[in-house]
DNA sequence: TCACCGTCATTTTGGGCGTT
DNA sequence: AACGCCCAAAATGACGGTGA
């Protein structure tokens, strides 16, 4: 479990102190608690860190999603993927454009690992409906959602509670060299999508919506298929990015020991 | 006790990215 | 037609140790 080997997440522990802890042969929270102290750290710092470890361990035990949403910096939320794996929701939205001041949310797609659900504008999409679909969610997974999807939802559904840990595959991917957008990364990872929607992109999602507004029901079907492909592919991509991040973390730690 | 210095941690600043 | 996030580098702040 990655998180339990991290010390930089605690107050007053930075990269240097963390290296001191590793150099003392301590690689986990439990190891830290079992030691009587760490040479190189003041007793005062050792004790305040021990207290924080107990608090965080308890939050993990309780699967307290809100605790991590507020206390864990977002670039480390990926570490919760395995821990919360039974409560992960993959989310992707479609809109009429990129600008939340002018544009509207048209579809919200949510996949919980078992079934896909879509909420369509004018056909049941509402703040309450989204909130209900996410009620058991302890970890959100999106692509670029921290900059696009979530702020868009906040803007249209004012006051919606999205205070949930959030693994953003865009930033996680960047760290392991996966850049260039969702579709490009999917290809690089060998994740496929159905040929019927393989040519659809975000811009076409906009025109499909307007076509549906003019009465073309087939356009909606295609839009929903596209949204579903995007959303479900997030669930295929997440464990792959997770593993790469995991490997990166351990190699960095070994580096620092030398 | 006090001024000073070195070491870390934390905060601030600026540039680039990717979303429909 | 925007915007929030991330990283890196620079600035600021807190703390402990030293020497007189």
TrEMBL record:
Gene Ontology molecular function: any one: nucleic acid binding
Q: Which residues form the YprB ribonuclease H-like domain?
A: 89-238
The species this protein was found in? uncultured marine group II/III euryarchaeote KM3_92_B07
What protein name does the entry list? Ammonia permease
Q: Name one Pfam family in it.
A: RNase_H_2
Concerning SUPFAM superfamilies, the annotation shows: Ribonuclease H-like
């Amino acid at each position: 479990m990655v998180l339990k080997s991290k010390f930089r997440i605690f107050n007053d522990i930075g990269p240097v102190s963390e290296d001191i802890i590793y150099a003392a042969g301590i690689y986990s929270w439990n190891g830290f608690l079992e030691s009587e102290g760490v040479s190189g750290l003041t007793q005062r710092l050792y004790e305040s860190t021990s207290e924080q470890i107990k608090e965080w361990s308890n939050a993990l035990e309780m699967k307290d999603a809100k605790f991590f949403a507020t206390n864990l910096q977002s670039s480390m939320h990926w570490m919760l993927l395995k821990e919360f794996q039974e409560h992960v929701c993959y989310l992707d939205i479609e809109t009429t454009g990129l600008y939340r001041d002018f544009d509207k949310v048209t579809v919200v797609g949510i996949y919980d690992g078992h079934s896909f659900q879509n909420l369509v504008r004018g056909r049941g999409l509402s703040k309450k409906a989204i909130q209900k679909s996410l009620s058991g969610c302890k970890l959100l997974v999106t692509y670029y959602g921290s900059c696009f999807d979530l702020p868009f939802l906040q803007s249209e559904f004012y006051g919606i509670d999205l205070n949930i840990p959030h693994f953003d595959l865009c930033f996680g991917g960047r760290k392991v060299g996966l850049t260039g957008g969702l579709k490009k990364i999917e290809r690089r990872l060998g994740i496929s999508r159905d040929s019927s929607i393989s040519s659809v992109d975000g811009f076409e999602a906009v025109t499909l919506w307007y076509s549906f507004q003019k009465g073309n029901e087939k356009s909606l079907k295609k839009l929903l298929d596209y949204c579903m492909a995007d959303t479900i592919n997030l669930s295929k991509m997440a464990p792959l990015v997770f593993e790469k991040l995991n490997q990166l973390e351990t190699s960095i730690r070994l580096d620092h020991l030398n």
